[in-house]
Amino acid sequence: MLSKRIQTALAGSSAIRAMFVEGKELAAKVGEENVFDFSLGNPATPAPESLKQAMKDLLDDMDPLVLHGYMSNAGYEDVRAAIAENLNSRFGTDFTWNNIVMTVGAAGGINIVFKTILDPGDEVIVFAPFFGEYKSYAANFDAAVVTVAPDYKTFQPDLDAFAASFTEKTKAVIVNTPNNPTGVIYSDETMTKIGEILRSKEEEYQKEIYLISDEPYRELIYDGAEENFLTKYYHNTIVGYSFSKSLSLPGERIGYIAVPNEVTDAEQMLAGIEVANRTLGFVNAPSLIQKAAAACVNEKTNLEFYDKNRIDLYEGLKKLGFTCIKPQGAFYLWLKSPVEDEAQFVAAAKKYNLILVKGSAFGCSGYVRLAYCISNDKINRSLDAFAKLANEYGLGV
Amino acid sequence: MLSKRIQTALAGSSAIRAMFVEGKELAAKVGEENVFDFSLGNPATPAPESLKQAMKDLLDDMDPLVLHGYMSNAGYEDVRAAIAENLNSRFGTDFTWNNIVMTVGAAGGINIVFKTILDPGDEVIVFAPFFGEYKSYAANFDAAVVTVAPDYKTFQPDLDAFAASFTEKTKAVIVNTPNNPTGVIYSDETMTKIGEILRSKEEEYQKEIYLISDEPYRELIYDGAEENFLTKYYHNTIVGYSFSKSLSLPGERIGYIAVPNEVTDAEQMLAGIEVANRTLGFVNAPSLIQKAAAACVNEKTNLEFYDKNRIDLYEGLKKLGFTCIKPQGAFYLWLKSPVEDEAQFVAAAKKYNLILVKGSAFGCSGYVRLAYCISNDKINRSLDAFAKLANEYGLGV
Q1: Which of A110, A133, A252, A302 is best to mutate for the B interface (most B CBs within 10 A)?
Q2: Which chain A residues are within 8 Å of B56, Cβ to Cβ?
Q3: CB A245 within 8 A of CB A105
Q4: Which has the closest alpha carbon to A331: A188, A221, A241, A176?
Q5: B64: nearest CA in chain A?
Q6: Is the ipTM of this complex over 0.90?
Q7: Cis bond upstream, residue A250 (ω within 30)
Q8: Which residues of A touch B265 (CB under 8 A)?
Q9: Which residues from chain A sit within 8 angstroms of residue B70, using beta carbons?
Q10: What pTM, to 2 d.p., does this model score?
């Protein structure tokens, strides 16, 4: 006798995880080396050597009662200070340790922010295509997501549609740039306009509306793009970050929430987020990895590795006649299905051992997502399989 | 504009954490060595040397993409298998890896179980005094706790009151033995009767009612008591465990849920718990510490350390004329306030730099909790302060 909510969740279980399982099953049949599994956003380049060394040093040098013990529910103060200083030096912010709450990944972070701001019946605006879990996170607090369709040429948000999507129940807007699943970076112009619209809507509805910036891919950007930090566009912006991608440790569950002083009642907000961290059962972010992440806060992932995959895959697919959005960041490629029902396309791809995820899992049918965080050898070998798939749909020359 | 739930939570914030903060403030004034802080259940004996070695070996020997990467949301299969085998060898259970879900501590574990079984309006029976967070955890899913008063002589549950507390809305019962805050171990007789009552209530209401056993103190038992595992008393028992106390790593957030095959629709239950782990934002238990805990699954904490504190404190307080429940497990001592309003007693104790937590934080006023996980030197020095406190209340000879 499971709860109704979990029965619903089980019925509509994650399409990404489902494809990941299909990939594993296929690998058991035809050999792991013959499956081109583009399903999961699991970093493919190892954590930096300095992370390993930092962890070993912490284990050798620190009092284990402190290293593995309880700290403030918001995290170690020195860790929060290191992150605040790092952000200040990169983005000209004026954070202190007190603006930062360490979290169990970005997923934990978004949930404690949602718990802190959402009442039942509230609405959260999301830009399609979007990370499907946002829906579950809002549902955890009896709130609903309202989806805004993209500009299908650029996959920037359609800002007229955005402005029209507000109601009296709107409490928050989530942006995720560089974007999962499209790889698109929201332009400075887009973000400036989003800020303007939010200010006018706060005025119109006479209440706070929060912009939540989900930034796990902040540093994963190509072609000389500049890292962006969204608090400058709008006063009520709350940032959620994860070290999963920058330090290649998604299994360790470490991230943070940053609440600038410009946020209305910032102090109360931070107190609420800290309480939510405790009462939702996270209690605090894992302790050793907090310290290790702070020690490696200036490390970068192997961007060249992903960039090579990006170019090889994008150019290869274009040559085969597929229509793709050119990725600017993250490690995802967004491809237009040659047929309207992309589930049919995903099934056809599987015949060639290509594991893709359907766009409807991200609130945007007619497209598929490819996570190109696999070996470059596989990327290039996959193009033979894609050639057969293209042939089946009469693409190319 | 915080959510109403968080506004309520902030207003009634944790009394334990509040006393912990008072202790810190006092330490800043009079010196840390002069404050006898009995507020927090933070292990006082360091993590075993083998844990440090296991972590360093894992860092040296394992592929970092696996060690720090995503795994199944339920945890690494080899970790779950190691825990299943350990439980089987100690308690005669017949678990496989599939019965175990790795969790972000016991707090994370209880929340994902609650999410899996509780619908809005459901009731969870708790035995007073109880860990106050249970109330927040139930409220996360719009369920309420129903409190059953204890037998005040033994602090075993009052089983007649228990039997009378069921309604059509009862979905679960939580037990926590060895108990926080009393240190009492529920006897075999108590547990047998709880099982009988649960079976008859399932029959009466014609539905599943779950017994959730919160077992972070399972191995912290004294006077030759035998470790107990509660699945043998009742078929619909779900066990939540934390390594926080046995391996002294409460900051690392690592535990597990065990669902025996005897649980109704066990497979569905496990699938639901895994989905809840993902959608509540935990995603999975932290990865490195999963592997390290599995490597140390046979380690025990320094029981002698706590036992000496227990004896010294209990005998010392009795001699001073205080009325205490003799602790049988965990690292808490439950003391009867000499005045009905224990908040007044807690305030008086603070004058002598004694930091205690009022029983009403555990749903049982008129008592206070002492967490004796501090140095033995402090335990013995605290008795001088308690002597002055006893004198103030005219206790002893």
Answers
A1: A252
A2: 56, 59
A3: no
A4: A221
A5: A46
A6: yes
A7: no
A8: 1-2
A9: 40, 42, 250-251
A10: 0.96
Closest among B240, B97, B268 to B175, alpha carbons compared: B240
Q: Which residues of B5-44 are buried (b: 16+ CB within 10 A; e: fewer)?
A: bbeebbeeebbbbebbebbeebbeeeeeeebbbbbbbbbb
Lowest mean pLDDT segment, chosen from A266-275, B3-12, B39-48: B3-12
Note whether A70 contacts B42, CB cutoff 8 Å. Answer: yes
User: In angstroms, rounded to a whole number, what is the distance separating the alpha carbons of residues B103 and B87?
Assistant: 17
Q: What angle do CA B108, B113, B114 make, to 5 degrees?
A: 95
Tell me if residue B366 falls in helix, strand or coil.
coil
| A47 contacts on B by Cβ (under 8 Å) | 64, 68
Number of helices (H), then strands (E), in chain B: 14, 13
**How distant, in Å, are the alpha carbons of A195, A209, B337 from that of B373?**
51, 45, 21
- Helix, strand, coil percentages, rounded to 5, for chain B: 45, 15, 40
Q: Is pLDDT at A278 greater than 70 in this prediction?
A: yes
Task: Give residue-wise pLDDT tens across range A146-194.
Answer: 999 999 999 999 999 999 999 999 999 999 999 999 999 999 999 999 9
Average pLDDT for B363-389: 97
Residue type, position A330, single letter? A
Closest CA to A238 of A208, A281, A205, A204: A208
Using CB atoms, pick whichever of B2, B136, B288 lies closest to residue A116: B2
Interface test with A, best of B70, B202, B238 (most A CBs within 10 A): B70
Chain B nearest-CA residue for A44: B65
Contact B1 A288 (CB under 8 A): no
Contacts of A280 in chain B (CB under 8 A): 111, 140, 280-281
d(CA B216, CA B330): 9
Among chain B residues, CA nearest to A119: B3
The predicted-structure confidence for A34-77, as pLDDT tens digits, reads as follows: 999 999 888 999 999 999 999 999 999 999 999 999 999 999 99
| Distance (Å, whole) CA B188 – CA A159 | 65
Q: Are B15 and B361 in contact (CB under 8 A)?
A: yes
- Dihedral sign of CA atoms A47, A49, A50, A53 in order: positive
Binary contact (B276, A9; C-beta < 8 A) = yes
DSSP state of A181: T
A363 close to A147: Cβ distance less than 8 angstroms: yes
Question: Can you tell me the distance from the alpha carbon of A310 to that of B59, in angstroms, rounded to the nearest whole number?
Answer: 30
pLDDT tens digits along A249-277: 999 999 999 999 999 999 999 999 999 99
Length of chain B: 397
List pLDDT tens digits, range A141-152: 999 999 999 999
Average pLDDT for chain B:
96
Q: Which of A17, A280, A284 is the mutation pick for testing B, counting most B CBs within 10 A?
A: A280
The answer to whether B69 contacts A250, with C-beta atoms less than 8 Å apart, is yes
DSSP code for A375: -
**Cα–Cα distance for residue pair B249/A225, rounded to 1 Å:** 42
Interchain pair B2, A272: CB under 8 A: yes
